């Protein structure tokens, strides 16, 4: 997963916030997904096309962690969001 | 603090001027279980969770987690309904049926600071009477089915408030022709209902709702003419909108009088103010407090407020506002001589017993 990969929230997603959790549902199909913690923050940061590196830098500053560590951590969250059709890649690919 | 007062305090959370406060100490386990059950029934999980997050309601860590789970569960239901609403809107758009989203879904998005505060358990869509048959046929073709058969062909388009439908996934949709059953529904000026518009977005798609004053009258009808006693969420809708400063009070008053529903609106506002112990007076609450309904409206409203009032008695009251001899005859036929499919689906076993019982009840009510 490269830092210049550009991601964006998928269109056609219904969502509501509940505390630090996000409840989301794709309009085209699929089940309700509840995002919490990093996944919820990550999804909200992708309301506009954003390079993954920028997201990692923001989260690194937010949590006070090294950027490289955050990049590793968010990889799984990004995979989950893509599998659930909640985010799409719009830019450079790995 | 009793359960009803705790529940009212939860429902009032966030309303400016409410003198209700949730308990200052966490509830014991038994009381919490009862509260959770009541919150689930009344769809107040959004306001409960907000009260907990705001520190307004004292809870244990386990109770806080349960409130959060209850909210997520309620929100999941709302999102599934909204997905269905988008499909319904597409079906109706495809056949050029103009529609307005009414009640819970529209109020959540237009009148609450966060739609997550206002949960709902079904969908309500209003269509024009002249397009009612087309809308219904389109939805039936689209996989919806009626919960109850029509009393007689053409009855729903002329006299019903709405038709209850169940979608392909089991979710409920009420297709509305007007705001209420009976005389108040028939005296709604449907042209005026459609004269203004609000819009909200779901997943990037714009949907139409009623204009603000029409929407307020709709929530008042829902609060005053629905359950007895009224549920807290419709009352919260009334207070939420009346306190918002987004309504034109004189437009509301004029519209209510024109629809011969001043008693309904005044009652809804008064009950909301009393239920949530709202200390702030607004032009609408002051008007409601001083309102003196005409005797006919008062009697008609009393039928809805009396839990012992029969459906037949309300139907008889409705007959008085049905215009024209032929319409009156059709209305009576629908109630006293319903079709076979309606009877088969009802609690009456045979056509003769249905018309005999219906006629007896109408005659008994007329002589009371």
Structural class of chain B: alpha+beta
H-E order of chain A: EEEEHEHHE
Please indicate the percent range of residues of chain A in DSSP E strands (runs of 2 or more): 25-35%
Overall pLDDT confidence of chain B:
88
Order of helices and strands of chain B: HHHHEHEHEHEEHHEEHHHHHHHHHH
Work out the radius of gyration of chain B: 21 Å
Strand order of the largest sheet of chain B: 1-2-5-4-3
Tell me about the largest β-sheet of chain B: 5 strands, mixed
Structural class of chain A, by secondary structure, is: alpha+beta
Q: Estimate the strand proportion of chain B.
A: 5-15%
CA radius of gyration of chain A: 13 Å
Description of the molecule:
- The complex is a heterodimer of chains A (94) and B (368).
- Chain A has 94 residues and is of the alpha+beta class.
- Chain A is built from three helices and six strands; from the N terminus they run E-E-E-E-H-E-H-H-E.
- Chain A has a three-stranded antiparallel β-sheet.
- In chain A, helix 1 packs across helix 3 (67-83) and helix 2 crosses helix 3 (67-83).
- Chain A is globular, with a radius of gyration of 13 Å.
- In chain A, 34% of the residues are buried.
- The model of chain A has no long low-confidence stretch (mean pLDDT 88).
- The longest helix of chain B is centred in the N-terminal third of the chain and has 34 residues, at 61-94.
- With 368 residues, chain B is an alpha+beta fold.
- Chain B has a five-stranded mixed β-sheet with strand order 1-2-5-4-3. Chain B has a two-stranded antiparallel sheet with strand order 6-7.
- Chain B is 56% helix and 9% strand.
- In chain B, helix 10 (212-225) crosses helix 12, helix 12 packs across helix 13 (262-275) and helix 16 crosses helix 19.
- Chain B contains 19 helices and seven strands.
- Chains A and B meet through strand 2 and strand 3 of A and helix 4 of B.
